[in-house]
Amino acid sequence: MSASREKKNRQELAGSGWSDPRTAREAQQRKEQKRSSILYGAIAAVFVVVAVITLVWKSNIIQKTATAAVIDGEKYTAADVTFFYQNVYRGFINENYYALALGYMGLDPQAPLAGQTMTEADAAIVGAAAGDSWEDYFVGQALEQMAAVQAALADAKANNFVYPDSVQAQYEAQMASLQASAQASGISLTQYLRSSLGGTMTEKIYGEHLLHLLQYSAYEQAYKDGLTYTDEELEAAYKEKQNTYDKADYEYVLVNGTAATTTDADGNTVDPTEEEEEAAKAAAKEIADEIYAAYQEGKDLKTLADDYDNANYTNVEAGTYASSTLMDWVFDGARTSGEDAVLENDSSYYVVVFHNRTRDEYNTVAVRHILATVDESGLDEESETYESELQARKDAAKAKAEELLAKWQSGEATEDAFAALANAESQDGGSNTTGGLYSQFPQGQMVPEFNDWCFDAARKPGDTGIVYGESANYKGYHVMYFVGQDLPYWKVQVSTTLKDAAAAEWSEQFTKDHAIDQGSGIKYVG
């Protein structure tokens, strides 16, 4: 595909509300540069060992003991820095997965980072200098993250902050998960860690820094949880960025006016001439005007689009905003229901009809749950007995869920008792340290069965039940306890935005004025 053709395709997509991953990622990266986003979670995930691990059993005395960095007088080894390096690097890959896959960033995760330099576009996204190596960038980010964590934990200590019990529970759960994976691979945990993080890593170093990250996250969360906003403050913040929170219903026809490319005698792609481009655009304008006139006479927009090969109809319900020719018109505050127009967008045209604009007024909910997962280990999907064996395990998980509900019902049967049971029995790692609680979650966030139970119009505080759910990550039964309705969703969105901004400002105090020096051991980081 030619460069000019690719540009036109991007423009067409952008106009219809599609967001170029590169543009979206640039905005996200600039936002992330302004805050200390410490706990990515990637480093704490269980490593997947696909094949036989080649272990490096060198003494690594120099690598283990050489000082890699000194931060405000505190010395760190290569293993210390490597932990944070991997946290930053893996978090970056996860955050930018689609941009990397589509080639919108120059980083190649499969090639050595030291030999890859940043393009000007990449440097602008991450806030670095063009020509810097990606290796140096991630080392620098790791050291900055280490400094921020060190400063934040010192601040927590000075303020006599007491970490919630969930921190230790999360730490133990993650280390136990790693230990189980190591045992399944037939090796020790240190061997397992070294296979993924290099020969200098140890269980002690890994565990120490994992705990520090969890503590930092808890300290930040405690700050955010302490923030409150009045209805007046939320309404004012909503109006400042109304397009961010509103949804719109509209329909449109996109008439493509891009001139077709041709192929020469040698099979090479030939871009259209300027005259051909102008003619194609003029033809698109003529079709758009015809469709618009016919629509105003009462004809159906979708039916009209079907009469033209280069016209595509789209109906959007509860669409969100992303800056483009189409969206800017739809989300203009002056729009009225039924208003229509023909809009030019580069080489194409839109025939658009606006219907409605709203914000999410429905109440979010709070619920506690206990998950009993279906054990699928050892099952062969190709086996003739797979379905019957899977059903037997589903039945076992259901029986476990029923047993847990009965156990709760036979006791105090209070919300606190349910929370304690969730912490002891739930297999949901995302909530089994917080009493199984999910609060302020909106419609459509959970699997359908979970979602439908929570948002049943007849649901009352204290209701319990059992629902089955499954996704790409699990199959299992949820023992449910309905806590009650929570804030309207738009208020949740606005307060979350305000809290994130406040937390970013709060965290900046831990990123400033550090003395960071690299030592000889820095070359062993990676």
SSE layout and pairing:
Layout: H1 3-15, H2 21-33, H3 61-65, E1 67-71, E2 74-77, H4 78-95, H5 97-101, H6 120-126, H7 134-158, H8 165-184, H9 189-197, H10 203-225, H11 231-240, H12 242-245, E3 247-255, E4 262-263, E5 269-270, H13 274-296, H14 301-305, E6 311-319, H15 325-330, E7 340-345, E8 348-358, E9 363-373, H16 386-409, H17 415-425, E10 437-441, H18 448-454, E11 464-470, E12 475-488, H19 489-508, E13 516-518
Antiparallel strand pairs: 1-2, 1-13, 3-6, 3-8, 4-5, 7-8, 9-10, 9-12, 11-12
Query: Which sheet architecture does the biggest sheet show?
Result: 4 strands, antiparallel
Number of strands: 13
Strand order across the largest sheet: 6-3-8-7
Mean pLDDT: 87
Please give a structural write-up:
It is a single chain. This protein has 526 residues and is an alpha+beta fold. The protein is 47% helix and 17% strand. The protein contains 19 helices and 13 strands. It has helices at residues 3-15, 21-33, 61-65, 78-95, 97-101, 120-126, 134-158, 165-184, 189-197, 203-225, 231-240, 242-245, 274-296, 301-305, 325-330, 386-409, 415-425, 448-454, 489-508, and strands at residues 67-71, 74-77, 247-255, 262-263, 269-270, 311-319, 340-345, 348-358, 363-373, 437-441, 464-470, 475-488, 516-518. A four-stranded antiparallel sheet has the order 6-3-8-7. Strands 10-9-12-11 form a four-stranded antiparallel sheet. The protein has a three-stranded antiparallel sheet with strand order 2-1-13. A hairpin with a 2-residue loop joins strand 7 (340-345) and strand 8. Helix 8 (165-184) runs antiparallel to helix 10 and helix 11 crosses helix 19 (489-508). It is globular and about 75 Å long. It starts with a helix and ends in an 8-residue tail after the last strand. 29% of the residues are buried. Mean pLDDT is 87; it is low at 1-36 and 40-58.
